[in-house]
Amino acid sequence: MAPTPLTPDEAARFRGNMSEWLAKELVEKGSLRLSAVDDPELQRHFQEAVHRASELLGRPVISMAGPRGMTFELGDQPLTDRQHPPLTP
């Protein structure tokens, strides 16, 4: 059974909270893996959070999604103006 979709308000809170959490975890650990992120909609929300975390850190955040979850890694180099990912409203 698919999870209940997030409301627009819940999605906005998710992006904000998860962006900050991802940024903190990546600074501390360099990478992390979340095994429970296998739903395509949840993966999309995490991708949006990754873009925001990248902006917060000023460094690229690489994410890979697969059938067993998602992996996130903090890039080494600062972002250039051309690399800044667009923030999703």
Task: Tell me what the structure shows.
- By secondary structure, this protein is of the alpha+beta class.
- The protein has one domain (8-74).
- Helices cover 45% and strands 18% of the residues.
- It has a three-stranded antiparallel beta sheet with strand order 1-3-2, with helices on one face.
- It starts with 7 loop residues before the first helix and ends in a 15-residue tail after the last strand.
- The model has no long low-confidence stretch (mean pLDDT 85).
Secondary-structure blueprint:
Layout: H1 8-29, E1 31-34, H2 40-57, E2 61-66, E3 69-74
Antiparallel strand pairs: 1-3, 2-3
Helix pairs in contact: 1-2
Uncertain parts: none
Tally of helical segments = 2
Q: How big is the Rg?
A: 13 Å
Task: Average the pLDDT over all residues and give the rounded result.
Answer: 85
- The helix content is 40-55%
Secondary-structure-based class equals: alpha+beta
Instruction: Note the quaternary state here.
Output: single chain
User: What's the number of extended β-strand segments?
Assistant: 3
What composes the largest sheet?
3 strands, antiparallel
Strand order of the largest sheet: 1-3-2
Straight-line distance between termini? 29 Å
Q: Could you tell me the strand content as a percent range?
A: 15-25%
Number of domains: 1
Query: What general form does the structure show?
Result: globular
Element string (H = helix, E = strand): HEHEE
Biased composition (Basic and acidic residues): 79-89
Region (Disordered): 68-89
